[in-house]
Amino acid sequence: MERPLSGRVEPTAELLSLPGGYGTPAEPLTWPAVRKELESARQYWFATVRPNGRPHVVPLDGMWIDDGWLYGGSPETVHARTVLTNPEAAMHLPDPWKAVIVEGRVDHIDLDADAAKATAARASAKYPEYGEQPAEHYTTVRCLRPRRILAWTSFPTDCTRLIFT
Fold first, then answer.
1. Which of 78, 86, 81 is nearest to 59 (CA)?
2. What SS3 string covers 68-90?
3. Fewer beta carbons under 10 A from the terminal one: N or C of the chain?
């Protein structure tokens, strides 16, 4: 189901139950702390599954906006083609010591002219090395909406599962 880019979601946080020998989580991370990591990241690892079942992982740029991850790329890329047939995907921040793993579904969202212009301005500010981004690149965006997020900054002490409903 397609959701507009507006509003924020408050997930439920719970400690992970880890296998024996891994340790016991004691204090969950807060959603604002995890959100901050998602917003400030410059690159993201994105995983999809091809129609034949083979996985595909690729590093991408993107932006965490209104509790969804917007990312781009040519419609000809493997990741863009795979989410058309299977929109279930995962995204992971690059730092394995401050892990944030997002599992969810990719929606294609049509933005009105004002929202496309604002999104292009945010992309230009976050990635100035690419130059000024034209609004027409953001009239339709791909957005990974989280179903759950696994995160930790001090394994196993703060291993947290965030559930989105």
1. 78
2. EEEECCCCCCHHHHHHHHCCEEE
3. N
Which neighbouring-strand residues pair with 63? Answer: 70
Q: Rounded mean pLDDT of 113-126?
A: 96
Residue type, 160: T
Give the pLDDT band (50/70/90) at residue 9. Answer: confident
Residue of 47, 118, 33 whose CA lies nearest to 82: 47
Per-position b or e across 95-131, b if 16+ CB within 10 A of its CB = eeebbbbbbbebbebebeeebbbbbbeebeebeeeee
As a whole number of angstroms, the distance between CA 98 and CA 153 comes to 4
User: How, if at all, do strands 160-163 and 44-49 pair?
Assistant: unpaired
DSSP-assigned beta bridge partners for residue 106: 144
Which tokens belong to 50? 């091809």
The span from the CA of 157 to the CA of 68, in Å, is 26
Q: How far is CA 102 from the centre of its chain?
A: 6
If 0-12 CB within 10 Å is exposed, 13-18 middle and 19+ buried, where does residue 148 land?
middle
Whether cis (ω within 30° of 0) applies to the bond prior to 156 is yes
pLDDT(136) > 60: yes
DSSP class of residue 125? H
